[in-house]
Specification:
The complex is a heterodimer of chains A (about 800) and B (about 160). Chain A has 20 helices and 28 strands. Helix content of chain B is about 30%, strand content about 15%. Chain B contains five helices and five strands; from the N terminus they run ββαβββαααα. The chains are: A alpha+beta (about 800), B alpha+beta (about 160). At the A-B interface, helix 1, helix 3 and helix 18 of A face helix 1, helix 2, helix 3, helix 4 and helix 5 of B.
Chain lengths: ~800, ~160
């Protein structure tokens, strides 16, 4: 563990205990379902049991007669809505076919769980009973669930669009990809299925809406309260001054709450109808069906190289399964991955081709990493395949292609500028921890004993793009997002010297209240304990963009720093005035604004605040009273964290069960604000990746029925499957912001899956196996071993890896049971 | 809500007598009737453990138990773990000191399950990582990757043994 030395009295760099925790560990936090308003009603949603159908009729008369039931509504009742649910990406020059998506279906359902009616009543249990009494008659339509089948357009998800292909998007750089591949000594190709997963925050979604006298207040378990407010203004035609959105305590997001939720609209609309507050709390089985899924791509990749291992070209053809509609950012997800298509490597020619496709499944959208895990997976497993093809060591091939430290800032062939990097240093540090010689000796000795597991090691040297985002680059006239991705801060010093910080970032577990307090406290020479960070309420702070894309620290935290620095500059002038000194000679030291060279002379923040708020005679002539600053920070560039993750697995050759036995993570996210929080993000991020690589998969059957509808079927990793992680850091400053910081929330997830797959292949390569698609369930690994046995042992040729037939139910070995098969 | 039945329970040391619907789940009784909202609901299938509390000293998933099944029982929820003088329970202290939580939603259930795990131990040596991991496999956390939860529980066990962490 590298320890950051900070000057005495500075809190940045220290692993401070979290300010959030006392309420959370005592059961005193307030999540949305903990809120009860006077007169509050409950909503239940009637959802389609068909994956694709026309709605013939909906009869809600039976539940309407039940005691306590106040209303049953359908899509036709809600014809006064001014806009369908939004998709916020309109790239200039790209034609996108957008299926209309309303909070309640209008005559047609396109996936299991599509909302067809809403029941409102007095009691949580009664509305669920009543929803079951709503009679819906469907005329079933043909269903398409496989994305490559859907691309044939034989069955249309939305007949009105005339095709399932929503858009094509291509980006190339450095030259002609076909020429570059043709000129390469070697080309490796593969097809990768990056399967559908769930966000699976332990708190499901939920909201309460209260429409009263023209004022709408919405409490929602959301990552983006300001965006929800903005959308309400558009959709219901009320000014933002009349809409307040509050994200109370939010029990995890992972991207799943970066969404404009249909149910937010349902509750708001029903509250307006009934003049009562309306609450909707998602059940887990609803959550699995209709909280957006992630990943779900079929990727065709080709990598060219010289005989001596220099990568010459990389091409990815991505077929993205969007599900039945668009979520807020759905079609944009693979494009975000394309931004880091070159990873850590100097690849002269690259091209990404993306095809968006509709299927009769639920929408896919941003889940932790959002496009970057998929791209990193493609790159990192393919480079291992290339190493095998060339007979090179997997570490050597990476080193050979790394962008050298001296080349930063580095312009990729896509014209994206990597801010900073030192990939060698992170790899070297990881190798110091791992001890490869010892590992290879151990691996060889284990192989000699057939009763012992097969051991393998896998590497993932990643860089990713986060800190979303420079507004001019990504906004409507740039990349095409509906809004720029700046962040706001309001710092207010109170008359007695305590501080309130309002941030537009909207955390759900990350620890902003602690980390942002550390940043602000240091600028005033105060204890973080007297700095309160307020978030998640559109009525308190300025417009903000929320928390996702590992953006909070490098955008929101920097906004807080800049706002505090402006106030600190004013403080120095006030102190200089009182000490009859020059403001340039005042510095923050030992808890005071003090005179350089004579630290006994100085004023605390409380004393400065006394001048600014209480005794105006102590202020410089003409200076405004008060100590307060509102600021919007828009970054000049993204940030590009990086690192090396190393995974060691044991594979049981009899059962196919994979166990992660060691994980070394060396990450570089710039100077640490709170190392403890960084470690926590890495632990959780890697665990999310282990989940996808080994256990988790959203499965639909061929009729579009969801097989993994509960936590019984969707296997989140438990404490028993996850190892203890060995984490370390290098610190390379980003020139993109004044703190030099980069994001860390998604890095572990982005790095993880290829490290595991590469480790399993390393364990099995001598058996003739060089490719298995995730999730690496015991069944899949066992089948791969059986097929290899059938072929006879020995090195396989360099063709496409083992292709697996559709698989049956069940899995061998212990650990979570995972349904297999189906179309996802 | 149909038929109601009488219910008498002690929750966190306070006695309650209520008429509750026969089908009312314990978790909704705690949350909606007694306003003890520290116990959370995370799934419908008793997999996640966010709703874990202690009934007569044993950890139960309160989303899978009817309130009436607890007639006459002593129940402890996360709110009851804090001492009368506001002192944190060693587990609460352990979770705070070791960053054993992020979003906090699974935390009350984790702490209650860990309390049961520590209470059931027969050995008096330090609790191993493996023992904690196995003992908490009925509680899901999506944020922490479990490592700091394990450390938190081990630290609490040491504190309870009277060993300085």
């Amino acid at each position: 563990m590298s320890v950051v030395q900070t000057p005495a009295g500075r809190s940045v760099g220290q692993s401070l205990r979290r300010k959030e925790d006392p309420r959370l560990i005592t059961g005193r936090a307030t999540y949305v379902d903990d809120i009860v308003l006077p007169g509050m009603l409950y909503a239940a949603v009637v959802r389609s049991t068909e994956a694709h159908a026309n709605i013939v009729s909906i009869d809600g008369s039976s539940p309407l007669g039940r005691p306590g039931i106040k209303g049953v509504y359908t899509g036709e009742d809600m014809s006064d809505l001014l806009a369908p649910l939004p998709m916020a990406w309109a790239p200039p020059g790209v034609e996108i076919k957008t299926p209309e998506r309303w909070p309640l279906a209008r005559g047609h359902v396109a996936h299991v769980g599509d909302a067809v009616a809403m029941v409102i009543g007095e009691d949580r249990y009664a509305v669920v009973d009543a929803a079951e009494q709503v009679q819906v008659e469907y005329e079933p339509l043909p269903v398409v669930v496989d994305v490559e089948e859907a691309l044939k357009d034989e069955i249309l998800v939305h007949a009105s669009l005339g095709t399932n292909k929503t858009h094509e998007w291509s980006m190339g750089g450095g030259g002609d990809i076909e020429q570059a591949l043709a000129a390469s000594d070697v080309v490796v190709e593969r097809r990768i299925v990056n399967h559908r997963t769930a966000g699976a925050a332990i708190e499901c979604r939920g909201c309460i809406a209260e429409y009263r006298a023209g004022q709408l207040t919405v409490w929602s378990s959301t990552q983006v309260p300001h965006l929800v407010r903005l959308f309400f203004a558009v959709q219901m035609g009320i000014g933002e001054d009349k809409v307040r959105v509050i994200a109370p305590e939010v029990g995890g997001g992972f991207g799943g709450k970066l969404q404009i939720m249909a149910e937010e609209t349902l509750c708001a609309w029903a509250s307006k109808q009934l003049d009562r507050p309306v609450k909707w709390i998602e059940t887990r089985s609803e959550n699995m069906a209709v909280s957006h899924h992630g990943r779900d791509q079929v990727d065709y990749v080709r990598m060219g190289a010289t005989r001596d291992g220099r990568i010459t070209a990389f091409h990815a053809n991505i077929i993205q399964d969007l599900g039945a509609y668009f979520g807020l950012l759905g079609p944009m997800i693979p494009e975000l991955g394309a931004f880091v298509m070159t990873g850590c490597y100097k690849i002269p020619v690259v091209q990404t081709d993306i095809t968006g496709v509709l299927t009769n499944k639920y929408i896919t959208d941003a889940i932790r990493g959002a496009g970057r895990p998929e791209m990193t997976h493609m790159l990192e497993v393919t480079i291992d395949q290339l190493a095998e093809e060339l007979g090179m060591d997997q570490i050597e091939i990476r080193r050979k292609n790394f962008i050298p430290e001296a080349d930063f800032p580095y312009d990729t062939p896509y014209g994206i500028t990597y801010d900073s990097g030192n990939y060698e240093a992170a790899l070297d540090r990881a190798l110091e921890i791992v001890d490869m010689d010892a590992f290879r000796a151990e691996q060889a000795s284990l192989r000699e004993d057939p009763t012992r597991p097969l051991r393998g090691i896998g590497f993932s040297t990643y860089t990713e793009v986060c800190g979303l985002a420079p507004s001019r680059a990504v906004g409507p006239s740039g990349f095409g997002l509906g809004i720029g991705l700046y962040e706001s801060a309001l710092v207010r010093v109170h008359p007695t010297g305590s501080v309130t910080v309002y941030t537009g970032a909207s955390p759900h577990g990350q620890g902003h209240e602690t980390g942002f307090a550390q940043i602000v406290a240091d600028r005033f020479g105060v204890d973080p304990a007297v700095v309160e960070v307020v978030h998640g309420d559109t009525a308190t702070g300025p417009m903000g963009l929320g928390t996702y894309g590992s953006r909070s620290l490098s955008i929101g935290g920097v906004a807080c720093a800049h706002a505090a620095e402006r106030i600190a500059a004013k403080c120095r002038e006030i102190v200089a005035h009182n000490l009859e000194a020059d403001p340039g000679d005042i510095e923050v030291r030992n808890g005071k604004f003090s005179l350089k060279g004579d630290p006994d002379q100085g004023m605390t923040l409380a004393e400065v605040a006394g001048c600014a708020y209480i005794d105006a005679t102590k202020m410089p002539e003409g200076m405004e009273l008060g100590l307060e600053q509102t600021l919007i920070y828009d970054p000049s560039n993204f940030v590009f964290p990086f690192g090396t993750h190393v995974c060691v697995v044991d594979v049981d050759a009899e059962t196919g069960k994979v166990s992660v036995v060691r994980w070394v993570a060396v990450d570089d996210c710039g100077p640490a604000v709170n190392p403890m929080l960084i470690d926590g993000q890495v632990h959780g991020g890697v665990t999310h990746g282990i989940g996808q690589a080994l256990y988790e998969q959203v499965v639909y059957d061929e009729r579009g029925q969801l097989i993994t509808g509960t936590f019984l079927d969707y296997a989140l990793p438990t404490a028993e499957e996850i190892p203890s992680f060995e984490t370390d850091r290098t610190e390379t400053k980003s020139p993109s912001n004044s703190l030099g910081v980069k994001g860390i929330g998604e890095a572990g997830t982005i790095a993880a899956t290829p490290a595991i797959v590469n480790a399993v292949i390393d364990a099995l390569r001598h058996k003739g196996i060089s490719d298995i698609d995730m999730p690496l369930t015991p069944m899949r690994v066992w089948q791969a071993l059986e097929e290899a046995r059938g072929r006879g042992e020995g090195p396989r040729d360099s063709e496409q890896g083992v292709s697996l037939p559709p698989q049956g139910e069940g899995s061998a070995g212990s650990g979570p049971t995972i349904p297999e098969g189906g179309a996802s | 809500m149909g038929r109601t039945v009488p219910l008498q329970v002690a929750v966190n040391g306070e006695s309650y007598e209520s008429e509750v619907p026969a089908r009312l789940l314990l978790v909704h009784y705690l949350r909606d009737e007694l306003k003890l909202t520290g116990t959370h609901v995370g799934c419908d299938t008793s997999n996640c453990g966010a709703c874990t509390c202690l009934v007569d000293g044993e950890s139960v998933k309160s989303c899978t138990l009817l309130a009436v099944q607890c007639d006459g029982a002593q129940i402890t929820t996360i709110e009851g773990m804090v001492g009368d003088d506001g002192t944190l329970h060693p587990l609460q202290e352990g979770f705070w000191a070791n960053h054993g939580l992020q979003c906090g939603y699974c935390t009350p259930g984790m702490i209650m399950a860990a309390a049961d795990l520590l209470a059931r131990r027969t050995g008096d040596g330090p609790i191993s990582e493996e023992e904690v991991r196995k003992g908490l496999e009925g509680n899901l956390c999506r944020c922490t990757g479990y490592q700091n939860i394990v450390k938190a529980v081990q630290a609490a066990a040491e504190a309870q043994r009277g060993v300085a962490a």
